[in-house]
Amino acid sequence: MPRASKRKAPPPTSPSLASCDVVSKRAATGKGRPRKDVDKIDSLFESYANQSLNMIDPTGIEALCSDLKVDHTDVRILMLAWKMRAAKQGYFSKDEWQRGLKDLHADTIPKLKKALPGLEKELTTASKFEDFYAFAFQYCLTEERQKSVDIETVCELLNLVLGPRYQLQVDLLIKYLKVQTEYRALNMDQWMHFYRFCNEISFPDLKNYDSDQAWPVIFDNFVEWVRDKQS
Fold first, then answer.
1. Residue 7 counted as domain residue
2. Are residues 95 and 159 in the same domain?
């Protein structure tokens, strides 16, 4: 039986191994999605996170807002939560943080601050804004199996999210919600129908409002209330 040669054979150069080498080199040289950027995003998360929860909690969000030089009630913070697809109001998980900041190409506070106007611009697209509008309501469902949001919170949310676009309609609906006594909260269907109302119904004359078009009853009552005030 012949003795094995001491000379080592050259490693195989199959396409699959060559491909792996390319991927490794890209990661090392910063091409593609550099690991360094991911590490910076994670490091930024740790600087605001509650270590016992492994989440950014309300205290961490306040610190984040302070560093971003925005108020915690600023609609752009809600937009940031939307971008992260945050599941729990006042909290950002590590996965949510990574998702949002990677999408925004932001791994530092200056970059994140610079990205905020871009979020506002993104929401000028009708489909994106409608998705954000729906998210804003869902984000306020803080209890398990909660289906509706109290009137006081709804009024604040309407003013924050929809006020800049439809201030007259929002102002009048808020006034109505505060004086009526039939509803203590609104559900998702009513919330989304008000967005449809703002888009479809001429205001303030309400000429094209038709109660036979299956609007939620609250809007029939609202329109009647507005017409009474106008007469």
1. no
2. no
Q: Do residues 226 and 147 share a domain?
A: yes
**Tally of structural domains, the chain:** 2
Q: What is the pLDDT along the chain (231 residues), one digit of tens a residue?
A: 434 433 444 444 444 433 334 333 434 444 445 567 688 999 999 999 999 999 999 999 999 999 999 999 999 999 999 999 999 999 999 999 999 999 999 999 999 999 999 999 999 999 999 999 999 999 999 998 999 999 999 999 999 999 999 999 999 999 999 999 999 999 999 999 999 999 999 999 999 999 899 899 999 999 999 999 988
DSSP letters for the chain: -PPPPSSPPPPP--HHHHHHHHHHHHHHHT-SS-HHHHHHHHHHHHHHSBTTTTEE-HHHHHHHHHHHT--TT-HHHHHHHHHHT-SSTT-EEHHHHHHHHHHHT--SHHHHHHHHHHHHHHTTSHHHHHHHHHHHHHHT--STT--EEEHHHHHHHHHHHTTTT-HHHHHHHHHHHHH--S-SEEEHHHHHHHHHHHHHS-TTT-TT--GGG---HHHHHHHHHHHHHH-
Domain containing residue 87: CATH number: 1.10.238.10
Within this chain, do residues 225 and 135 fall inside the same structural domain, yes or no? Answer: yes
pTM of the predicted protein model: 0.82
Range(s) of the domain holding residue 115: 34-122
Last residue of one domain, picked from the residues 88, 122, 156: 122
